[in-house]
């Protein structure tokens, strides 16, 4: 099996793209991004540098995932959501609202549980 990368996708250095992943057209992937198996990244979505997307994640279109974010396995990020830098989204979460910088958020819908910006 292979990954599918749409038209006009831009990718930085050190990209790791696992099989069965789909990157929709006009997505932008920063440096050293890790996209694991069975991940879907929507159109016009921007992933910052050092972002890790774990298996089975679905990121809808026009999202912004800032630098050093980790999204847990099986999570869903809805349209037009912004996840702030250095935040962690727990496995199986449904992100329905913007997430600020430097927090841990999880649940359905995802809620900020703890600040880790220290």
Summary?
By secondary structure, the protein is mainly β. The chain has strands spanning 4-5, 10-11, 16-17, 22-23, 28-29, 34-35, 40-41, 46-47, 52-53, 58-59, 64-65, 70-71, 76-77, 82-83, 88-89, 94-95, 103-107, 110-115.
Tell me the span between the first and last alpha carbons: 41 Å
In helices, the fraction of residues equals under 10%
Mean pLDDT level: 97
What would you report as the Rg, rounded to the nearest angstrom?
13 Å
- Widest sheet: strand order? 3-6-9-12-15-17-18
Question: Oligomeric form of this entry?
Answer: single chain
How many strand segments? 18
Global shape: globular
Unreliable sequence segments? none
Largest sheet: 7 strands, mixed
**SS class:** mainly beta
The SSE order reads EEEEEEEEEEEEEEEEEE
Question: Helical element count?
Answer: 0
- Kindly estimate the percentage of residues that lie in beta strands according to DSSP: 35-45%
Describe this structure in words.
This protein is mostly beta strands and 118 residues long. 0% of the residues lie in helices and 36% in strands. The strands form 3 sheets. The protein has a 7-stranded mixed beta sheet with strand order 3-6-9-12-15-17-18, with no helix packed on it. Strand 17 (103-107) and strand 18 (110-115) form a beta hairpin. The protein contains no helices and 18 strands.
């Amino acid at each position: 099996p292979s990954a599918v990368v749409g038209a006009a996708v831009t990718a930085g250095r050190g990209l790791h793209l696992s099989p069965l992943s789909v990157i929709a057209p006009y997505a932008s992937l920063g440096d050293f991004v890790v996209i694991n198996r069975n991940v879907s990244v929507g159109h016009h979505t921007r992933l910052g540098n050092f972002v890790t997307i774990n298996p089975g994640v679905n990121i809808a279109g026009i999202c912004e995932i800032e630098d050093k974010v980790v999204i847990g396995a099986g999570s869903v990020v809805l349209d037009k959501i912004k996840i702030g830098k250095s935040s962690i989204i727990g496995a199986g979460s449904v992100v329905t609202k913007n997430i600020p910088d430097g927090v841990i958020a999880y649940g359905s819908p995802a809620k900020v549980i703890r600040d880790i910006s220290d």
